[in-house]
Amino acid sequence: FYTGFDSDNSSGDFSEANHKVPEMLDLDPHQSNRTGKHNGQTEIQENGIKRHRTSLPAPMFSRSDFSVWSILKKCIGLELSKITMPIVFNEPLSFLQRITEYMEHIYLINKACSHADPLERMQAVAAFAVSAVASQWERTGKPFNPLLGETYELTREDLGFRFISEQVSHHPPISAFYSEGLNKDFIFHGSIYPKLKFWGKSIEAEPRGTITLELLKHNEAYTWTNPTCCVHNVIIGKLWLEQYGVVEIVNHSTGDKCVLNFKPCGLFGKELHRVEGYIQDKHRKKLCVIYGKWTECLWCTDPTTYETYKKSEKRGGEQKKKSVSEEDIKSENDEADDMPEVQDTVQFIPGSKLLWRINCRPPNSSQMYNFTSFAVSLNELEKGMEAILAPTDCRLRPDIRNMENGNMDVASKEKERLEEKQRAARKERAKDEVEWHTRWFHQGTNPYTGTPDWLYSGGYFDRNFSDCPDIY
């Protein structure tokens, strides 16, 4: 789920303390941390790059004894932002950490920076925009709502970026983020305000807010908004997730535009996960066609080849779904060494160029909330890190930490305590007529779209945290 269900305005009637916690699943002991370190410890590789953990400290709890509908049926007519869900439906990450998963495929930004051709840059940016939602595949657990003033930072020297985010508003819930390349080659920033709707059998999250990527070497800026996310079968059946809607990526320097259509499932699931679109120049001339699935891969080809193929298909030509071997991929993509060994279900058009493929998940991912390897590392709290983190960092949240460690009862109580503390602080500010002031971001105007946005104020990595709020 997207953020937005938990609220400091909700009543205690729906507290997770009223629900029994199910038994823990067993992890395969052979799938423990391959670094040889356990309980969150890490080791240093010979090249100096830290090796991140490959599993969580404890497996996830079974949700089979719980029904989302058992909670939602009592809340018909209420705003979803006013509903507190039992902690068993959460995953042990804050929404600020979920946003950080945009950076999992940062190699696509690096590719965009390296290309001299603006068309190839747009192709890489389009692939990055699609990859940003790929980690949500099968992630039906809901991230924790960030507390007002909560932050998350991530520096990955091995991947060449650093990232900072802050919860800048609680009602409505708005998360702002800023990332930059350590080589000063890009800036990636934005703010997200998920608008939630409950349709009876499904929950829809429209992620309002602008995402901006600046390629500094090329003096280019790209903006877009993510597709709508929908979780189905909240009443009965297995939860499943889809993304749909039109995403427009605009290059504000050249006038080029990429239009991506995330298709809704349709009858019999024919269009499930499919993405189709095109890149056009400022004169609306189509330069290439993009197709694939946001859960698998993305390809591009020239418009003539695409139209010829589609006409042949309509005439009943024998165009069958083709699995692409790793040898095929190597000829199309210089990132082949990083490609997973999976079978595509995308109907491959001969002559297409591979833009992106999803990373393989850890073998025990299903017992770790369907996390990717990147997500598994996000809440890692290494020895000595607490001394340099802002006191508002997600890693220090006791409810998330206890859930990650499998202490569900303690996590539930801590979640209640933090929400009550947030309510009390808000009432105190109202009593004293004191306005909340964000620490690292400020309201402004996006310089490229002219729309309201939250902009990074700078200074976080100077590490002056003396005036940070006490939220935990």
From TrEMBL:
Cite the entry's keywords alphabetically: Coiled coil, Lipid transport, Lipid-binding, Transport
Q: Which GO terms describe its molecular function?
A: cholesterol binding
Q: Name one GO cellular component term.
A: cytosol
Q: Where is this region: Disordered?
A: 310-339
Instruction: Quote the Gene3D superfamilies the UniProt record gives.
Output: 2.40.160.120, 3.30.70.3490
UniProt-listed Pfam families: Oxysterol_BP
Q: Does the keyword Zinc apply?
A: no
UniProt feature coiled coil, ranges: 401-435
Q: InterPro entries, alphabetically?
A: OSBP_sf, Oxysterol-bd, Oxysterol-bd_CS
Q: Which PANTHER family match?
A: OXYSTEROL-BINDING PROTEIN-RELATED (PTHR10972), OXYSTEROL-BINDING PROTEIN-RELATED PROTEIN 2 (PTHR10972:SF153)
Q: What is this protein called?
A: Oxysterol-binding protein
The protein's organism comes out as Grantiella picta
Encoding gene, per UniProt annotation: Osbpl2
